[in-house]
């Protein structure tokens, strides 16, 4: 029986691959063509994103870190005693370490879909914060999940840094904040990193870096499709384009066909006109007023907004 299953499985992609496959097929056969930015983050894409966060033009990561560092005491002052910190999505631990150092949390609950990543992260935090109870949860943080019983009765503080909320459509951001409100419960706090509207030239440079790392990050999506779904995209036939859409307050990333071409994947032929684009990402930029309205519409109210001196980025404390 085991043998038969192994054979059968050799021909069946796992559930993750098939969700990727059906999303890619649906996205590339609609007009205009689009792909979800959540698929950027395979191993190579996560590594390229790490490189982006260190680029001179990419201000968000270092600006947010500066706010968390400079306002550490003020943030600590609003955190109740014995609280549990619940991080939605677990990336590099740099930001959460700042909160843990400043605020004296009793427990830390990183929530992420990637179990391997969580285990490694939990290990290093347990080592560096021996008094902290670390309870990783493997789950898709955009949908409902249960918190570990071990933090029952503790005050809850959510953490969603990096302006990842800006990669959601506004209705998705609203749904996410509502779901977080349900999971964390009445009286909870939520600390969210939100990128702000600013001079378009700064935005343009941040997503069109001189070293071309963002272009590689964008094009890596086609490489991933080739590798995991047996596609035959010619990467040299697509160009990275990032533009600011003023009406929608968002950076849009596209991959633009340099010439007419067809691509085969998963038994389907996809035709591209010269100049036709695949829309791969939106990165919404908020005014403080517009984010406040979004938060209120999702069952939260804004308690405090911290920004850097140039008001490039904000860290906002929401209360349920
Ligand atoms: C992860 N996210 C907040 C990044 C952003 O700025 O929207 C992803 C990114 N895309 C291009 N550069 C960085």
Automatic annotation (TrEMBL):
Which species?
Bradyrhizobium denitrificans
**Domain of life, source organism:** Bacteria
Q: What name does this protein carry?
A: L-histidine N(Alpha)-methyltransferase
Q: Which NCBIfam families match?
A: egtD_ergothio
For the Histidine-specific methyltransferase SAM-dependent domain, which residue ranges apply? Answer: 20-318
InterPro entries xrefs = EgtD, EgtD_Methyltrsf_superfamily, MeTrfase_dom, MeTrfase_EgtD-like, SAM-dependent_MTases_sf
- Which Gene3D superfamilies does the protein's record reference? Vaccinia Virus protein VP39 (3.40.50.150)
MF term (GO), any: L-histidine N(alpha)-methyltransferase activity
Q: Which residues form a coiled coil?
A: none
The EC designation for this entry is 2.1.1.44
Q: What UniProt keywords apply to this chain's record, in alphabetical order?
A: Methyltransferase, Transferase
List this protein's GO terms for biological process: methylation
